[in-house]
Amino acid sequence: MTRRVRETINGLFERFPEFSARVVLPGSQGFYGGLQLAALPTALIATPIETLLFLHILLLIYFAFAAFDRQQCAGPSLLRRVVRSLTDLARADQPFTEEPGFGLSKL
Questions:
Q1: Which residues, at least 6 apart from 104, have a Cβ–Cβ distance to it below 8 Å?
Q2: DSSP secondary structure letters along the chain
Q3: What is the number of other CB atoms lying within 10 angstroms of the CB of residue 94?
Q4: Closest CA to 41 of 32, 31, 52, 30
Q5: 8 A C-beta contact, residue 35 and residue 27
Q6: Does residue 17 contact residue 23 with C-beta atoms inside 8 Å?
Q7: pLDDT tens by residue, the chain, 107 residues
Q8: CA gyration radius, the chain
Q9: Is 51 within 8 Å of 43 (Cβ atoms)?
Q10: pTM of this prediction exceeds 0.70
Q11: I need a surface site. Which of 25, 43, 66, 104 has the fewest CB within 10 A?
Q12: What is the DSSP letter of 26?
């Protein structure tokens, strides 16, 4: 490889390794992830019903909090946009009649 290609490929990792995506997991995270991956089949063999019940409850809580957090983030702005688009669709279906006091001239 030429010098420029080498600098381009390795530049970020050599200058700022904490910002580089070359190392995705630090050693401790990889160790604990491997430990969990080894413990899961062991627990499924030793106590399958209890392990499945525990996994069911754990995943239920995880996805319930994810849905709750998503609902909190979407909140009123999403609801406002949906209601506005539905009312616009409803108005488009009806013929335009200007009632006294409610016309476009008041806007």
A1: 98
A2: --HHHHHHHHHHHHH-GGG-SS--S-HHHHHHHHHHHHHHHHHHHH-HHHHHHHHHHHHHHHHHHHHHHHHHHHHHHHHHHHHHHHHHHHHHHSPP-PPTT-SGGG-
A3: 7
A4: 52
A5: no
A6: yes
A7: 688 888 888 888 888 887 777 777 778 888 999 999 999 999 999 999 999 999 999 999 999 888 777 666 665 666 677 777 777 766 766 665 555 555 555 54
A8: 29
A9: yes
A10: no
A11: 104
A12: -
Hey, what are 96's tokens? 């335009």
Name the token pair of 1.
């490889």
Residue appearing with tokens 């063999």: 45
Cα torsion 54, 57, 59, 60 to 10°: value is: 170
SS3 (DSSP) at 101: coil
22: its two tokens = 């070359």
